[in-house]
Amino acid sequence: MTNYLDNNTYYIYDSSVDAFKEDKLSHFALGDALIRAVGNGEAPAALHFWPIDNLVILGMMDTRLPYLQDGIRFLRDSQSDVLVRNAGGLAVVADDGILNFSLVLPDTEKCKLSINDGYTVMKTLIEQTFADSNKTIAAFEISDSYCPGDFDLSIDGKKFAGIAQRRFKNGVSIMIYMSINGDQQKRGALIRRFYELGLRQETTRWHFPTVNPDSMANLSDLLGMPLTVDAVKERILTALAANGNALIEGPYSTKLLADYQTAYEKMKKRNEQIDENKATGIEQEK
């Protein structure tokens, strides 16, 4: 496997400080545009930070819930915005104690990156980011967490992060959400109730988790460190720089902005369908 974490060049994009921060759809549209930029060679690789406040991010599988609108109504009544992301998986919470970021890497004949390799690259970066800790970060599914997956990251059996991937031709985005601080019990209870209302105990051909809020914890508590989202962002950049990577502020080329606009319109259409109760008609990405 190509070593993506040493002696490479990364364009850095931070949606918490640039013009995209005011619109929640924009984070996902920019993410798609960055995959295309790396895939077509316009960017060598990219690191995209996209922390979001007060949002429940649904996966496309969640749109198959038989009583989806009841679940969405509950989330909105709980003062959470709701958005369906442009990738698979299940519901996660985004708030001011959660860090979302993506590694966007080339996936070409010269530099092939398997799905398992992609997960391993992200896990390795997180381990390097917290190399000063004596805790072991494990990767396996925490089945009663929200958005469970084979590469859930945990410490002492408590999940603090989940990883997903999104792939276009010649490019891949490895995305992670990390619970840094805040009320993780409340987050877990919110998603548990969402599924209770969205399912009403009906059996479906899709599996939705029975969420146990105790299955997850904040990284700050697991490591015994007073961490903030901004502090973790700095740790990630420091770890990459220490490995000899060049970190450059990402440019917004005409092509990138055009791809962003195309992706934004798709995100907008997808979320309009949810509000119109047409969730099962969501288009497949090409």
TrEMBL record:
The active site is at C147 (acyl-thioester intermediate). It comes from the Bacteria. It holds the Pfam family LplA-B_cat. Residues 41-248 form the BPL/LPL catalytic domain. The record marks K159 as: Lowers pKa of active site Cys. InterPro entries: aa-tRNA-synth_II/BPL/LPL (IPR045864), BPL_LPL_catalytic (IPR004143), LipL (IPR024897), Octanoyltrans_LipM/LipL (IPR050664). It catalyses: N(6)-octanoyl-L-lysyl-[glycine-cleavage complex H protein] + L-lysyl-[lipoyl-carrier protein] = N(6)-octanoyl-L-lysyl-[lipoyl-carrier protein] + L-lysyl-[glycine-cleavage complex H protein]. Its EC number is 2.3.1.204. One of its GO terms (biological process) is lipoate biosynthetic process. Signal peptide: none annotated. PANTHER family: OCTANOYL-[GCVH]:PROTEIN N-OCTANOYLTRANSFERASE, OCTANOYLTRANSFERASE LIPM-RELATED. Catalyzes the amidotransfer (transamidation) of the octanoyl moiety from octanoyl-GcvH to the lipoyl domain of the E2 subunit of lipoate-dependent enzymes. The reaction proceeds via a thioester-linked acyl-enzyme intermediate. Belongs to the octanoyltransferase LipL family. This is Octanoyl-[GcvH]:protein N-octanoyltransferase. It comes from Trichococcus palustris. The gene is lipL.
